[in-house]
UniProtKB/TrEMBL annotation:
Name of the protein this chain belongs to: Transporter, major facilitator family protein
SUPFAM superfamilies: MFS general substrate transporter
Gene3D superfamilies hit by this protein: MFS general substrate transporter like domains (1.20.1250.20)
TM regions (residue ranges): 30-48, 69-87, 99-121, 133-152, 158-178, 210-228, 240-263, 272-289, 295-317, 329-350, 356-374
Subcellular localization(s) per the UniProt record: Cell membrane
Length: 388
């Protein structure tokens, strides 16, 4: 538990730093005279360069543990932000964002693998995943508005310098507090009833994983569209503070459901399906129900996200049986990276023809239908208790 508390502490600092940039990057790019299509690529390239990092992260984390990669990601990302403070041309920002995407690709699978390894009890693991979500959400509630305030006081360069040093400081905290990995045999970490089934992970789980990994891909794609559209409200002339408040509203809604720890007692598959349906309704409301208050829709959307992500992590853990967690979560990060790249790029290219919110609604419904129609096949390959 002590390890989890330390991990939550520096994760809060790291996520606070990263989410504080969300309402800042688009106005900063506009100040460099970047076009909306270029901004879409700038937001997407960060996710695209996650891919090589994710591909490396899985096997490296399983082999060496999470500690060194958490420290590397945080420290390197902080140094990149210090350089970002001196950007004067759009292509320089694009380059630094692409490098940042690579170095931060190790952070999420390393943290999730470390948290999941702290217990072999599925309910306890679910609570750790919820705790990770609560910390992430608390940081994202506070940081967008805080980032907007910092920009108003210190300007873009001062903001990036301050956030960069905060990430470096967080890397130092991780160096001092994250324990070195205990090289336990894989079987020792597995529940007895699933040990035999969990060992051949790549062959047995891959058909199911392909279908399940469509969920994080779709969610990340739609989230990228959402962030792109919110940042470009009123032609990109909406105030940074109001944009930061809207980002915080999403996180505040997620915090509500993440705090309901009793939800971990319900089937992860059912929670994933319900959350995706609510998300689809929210995006439809954003596209069509213009009379509804935007902040109210975003609060409900955030609540669905808070329900979804811990359930999805629990489903991956149970499906793998606790084996090769670095690889399992790196595949999840790969799916989300591809989606995060495709979302803002598609929104930047298509927003003149149709609402990106409506595209997100169609994607979510298609993914949900695909997940539900595969129920019978899933039941044949999944351990009991993890059926959708």
């Amino acid at each position: 538990m002590k390890t989890a508390l330390w991990l939550y502490l520096f994760l809060f600092l790291a996520y606070f730093d990263l989410h504080a940039q969300h309402p800042v990057l688009t106005p900063f790019a506009l100040s460099l005279r970047a076009a909306p299509a270029f901004i879409g690529w700038m937001m997407g390239i960060y996710a695209l360069t996650h891919l090589p990092g994710n591909l490396l992260a899985g096997s490296l984390i399983d082999r060496h543990g999470s500690r060194r990669y958490i420290i590397f990601s945080l420290t390197a990302a902080g140094i990149i932000l210090l350089f970002q403070a001196h950007v004067q041309l759009p292509w320089q920002l694009l380059l630094l964002r692409s490098i940042s995407g690579f170095v931060l690709a190790f952070l999420s699978p390393a943290c999730l693998a470390l948290l999941a390894s702290l217990s072999v009890n599925p309910v306890t693991q679910g609570k750790y995943m919820s705790g990770h979500g609560v910390v992430h959400t608390l940081a994202s509630v506070l940081s967008p508005a805080a980032g907007a305030i910092i920009v108003a006081q210190s300007g873009y360069s001062g903001t990036f310098v301050g956030l960069g040093w905060l990430l470096i400081f967080t890397g130092v905290i991780a160096f001092l507090t994250v324990p070195r990995p205990a090289r336990l045999p894989t079987k020792a970490r597995l529940p007895q009833k699933v040990t035999a089934k969990a060992e051949p992970l790549p062959q047995e789980s891959f058909p199911f994983s392909l279908r399940l990994y469509m969920v994080p891909f779709t969610i990340a794609c739609c989230q990228g569209m959402l962030f792109f559209e919110i940042s470009l409200r009123s032609g990109g002339h909406a105030s940074i503070l109001s944009t930061g408040i809207l980002f915080s509203a999403v996180s505040l809604g997620a915090l509500v459901t993440l705090s309901m720890l009793f939800l971990n007692q319900y089937s992860p598959g059912k929670r994933v399906a319900v959350a995706m349906f609510i998300l689809a309704l929210c995006f439809y409301a954003l596209a069509a129900a213009h009379t509804l208050p935007l902040i109210g829709i975003l609060l409900v959307l955030g609540m669905a996200k808070g329900l979804l992500f811990p359930a999805l992590s629990s489903l991956f853990i149970e499906r793998s049986g606790g084996a090769a967690l670095g690889r399992v979560f790196s595949y999840q990060s790969i799916a989300m990276s591809i989606g995060s790249f495709a979302g803002p790029v598609a929104a930047g290219q298509l927003r003149g023809h149709t609402s990106p919110y409506f595209i997100a609604f169609l994607l979510l419904m298609a993914a949900l239908i695909g997940l539900l129609t595969g129920k019978q096949n899933s039941a044949k390959v999944m351990p009991s208790g993890i059926q959708l």
